[in-house]
Amino acid sequence: MQLSQIIRNKRLAAGLTQEELAQKVGVSAPAVSKWEKGTSYPDITLLPVLARNLGTDINKLLDFSSDLDPAALQDFFTKLTMTAQKDGWQAAVALVDQELRDYPSVSQLQMMAAPFLDTLKPQIPKDDWPPVQQRIIQLYKAGEQSSDLPQAQFAALGLFNFYLSEEQFDAAEKQLAALPSETVTAWALKPKLQLKRGQLTEAYVEGEKLLGSDYGALGQVLDLLTQVAIADHQLATAEEYVKVAKALDQAIHMNSPFVIDTELQIAKATKDAKRVVAVIRQFADNLDQPFPKVFQHLPQPKPRESPAAARKQFVQTTVLDPDLAFLKDTPEYNELLKQYAD
């Protein structure tokens, strides 16, 4: 509810006329009328006496609205857009300021207004941009204080991206340090900043690190989901997870241990000896494949001293897996062990 409506509602609830409220507060009746029409606002020094005579306190008087419904927000955005097109950027900025005076604590409104003002930049003369720029920063900072955690994080991320677009790199780096690590990782913000700064080598390295860690995390999740689907006796679903894991592995050429474990889970559950042997053989044969090209800017791992010894060790460890005990007397598995014995 807007301040004008709050004043009117509480005045009527208190049984006061505009003239009576004006006399108690020490202003003219037309001043009260303007407050209730929303064409002007009470001076800050009048708020305590105004609240007292309306039977409320300042906090409740100024609690204009904790939220705006989505329809109201969409209507306001449409109004903003039309105002900018018809009357120009100054009218749109004034409309934003007016709405924010009425709803200063609505983080959704702040997060709508900030990027909207940014879109007006091409229309705004260079000398007139700094105040609008500062207004955008203020809106994002206000949004960061929201009690709604996702909204606060959205505001923090928005401020980082705004600093970046304005080439305020030091401010962007400071903002980056204050963001949750999950946000920084998920949106690849560090290499994004390095790219804008022209630090291409650093951006390569940081980006490839993120790719490696995210790929590893994704492999673990797919492996886990495969196990969940098997436990739920949904083998077709498990096969879909395996398919995704294999496709990713083939695209990056990682020969990931999570992929072999993912497919082995199904092979074990179905006691498919031929599939188990094929998966083990494929993984063993690829143990000495080159380091993936997508990680060419990271330190390369030292070559294995003996790929043959690594294969032998890997294959022999499968003998210790109790879930593979059913392979013991199968010709395919015994042939595999014999092949990698030497």
TrEMBL record:
<dbReference type="Pfam" id="PF01381">
    <property type="entry name" value="HTH_3"/>
</dbReference>
<dbReference type="InterPro" id="IPR010982">
    <property type="entry name" value="Lambda_DNA-bd_dom_sf"/>
</dbReference>
<dbReference type="InterPro" id="IPR001387">
    <property type="entry name" value="Cro/C1-type_HTH"/>
</dbReference>
<keyword id="KW-0238">DNA-binding</keyword>
<protein>
    <submittedName>
        <fullName>Helix-turn-helix transcriptional regulator</fullName>
    </submittedName>
</protein>
<dbReference type="GO" id="GO:0003677">
    <property type="term" value="F:DNA binding"/>
</dbReference>
<feature type="domain" description="HTH cro/C1-type">
    <location>
        <begin position="7"/>
        <end position="61"/>
    </location>
</feature>
